[in-house]
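User: Design a sequence. Structure:
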């Protein structure tokens, strides 16, 4: 375990760790599948992410520990294999009780990443459902954090990027073909929305990567293996996903 987590752990009381563990055991299937010694670091990273993130909500609605733990766990899940502990730019999370729209627009959203306000907006009942139904390839928090990872990576100096430059480039060029295939309707897995552009394909792919890893692998093994190399993990190895011995 990294020294900074050991030090951080000293300042977190047991009750908080237990509370986080219980929420994740109840709702996060990725966490449930982890080996016991990986669960400890996952909880610490979930609490570490919360420490450096500002959560807010609307008047009359409150942010519960369950919301914080579960939302943060989606970020930790995606970054479990790479050394990114928190979001530097999108470090504000606004939780809404129901779908919302922006001023002068009637379009309703359940979630979005807003570069103007540097905020990730999430509708709580949809976030929760994303975890409760863990095998339908739909998880709002995973989807929005996938956008954040790509956007933040692009903002960083290339020397301190969290995603390997070559792997990301490789994923993009390979995925252009996949995008075409989805747009033609020639696909038995992805929902149409994934064909919007590369950003949406990446975010949707991560939802499948974590909720339907075997189906995603069967659909396009090369694409799946590229995601494994990019995120340095393979969710098919549920006990120890970051032990990356990519299976054929
Ligand atoms: Zn999206």
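Assistant: Done.
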């Amino acid at each position: 375990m990294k020294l900074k987590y050991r030090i951080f752990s000293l300042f977190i009381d047991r009750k908080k760790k237990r509370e986080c563990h219980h929420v994740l055991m109840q709702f996060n299937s990725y966490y449930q599948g982890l080996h016991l010694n990986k669960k400890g670091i996952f909880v610490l990273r979930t609490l570490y992410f919360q420490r450096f993130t500002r959560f807010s909500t609307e008047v009359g609605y409150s942010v519960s520990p369950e919301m914080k733990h579960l939302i943060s766990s989606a970020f930790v899940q995606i970054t479990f294999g790479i050394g990114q502990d928190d979001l530097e730019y999108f470090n504000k999370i606004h939780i809404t009780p129901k779908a919302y729209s922006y001023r002068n627009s009637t379009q309703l959203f359940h979630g979005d990443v807003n570069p103007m306000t540097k905020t990730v907006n999430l509708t709580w009942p949809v976030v929760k459902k994303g975890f409760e139904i863990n095998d339908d390839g739909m998880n709002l928090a995973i989807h929005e954090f996938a956008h954040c990872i790509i956007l933040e990576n692009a903002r960083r100096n290339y020397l301190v990027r969290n995603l390997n430059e070559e792997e990301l480039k490789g994923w993009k060029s390979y995925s252009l073909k996949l995008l075409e295939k989805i747009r033609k309707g020639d696909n038995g897995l992805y929902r149409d929305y994934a064909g919007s552009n590369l950003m949406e394909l990446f975010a949707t792919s991560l939802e499948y990567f974590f909720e339907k890893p075997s189906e995603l692998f069967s659909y396009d093994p090369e694409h799946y293996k590229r995601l494994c190399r990019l995120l340095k993990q393979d969710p098919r190895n549920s006990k120890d996903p970051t032990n990356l011995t990519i299976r054929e």
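The chain has two domains: 3-155, 158-231. The pocket of zinc ion is lined by residues 143, 147, 200, 203 (CB under 6 Å).
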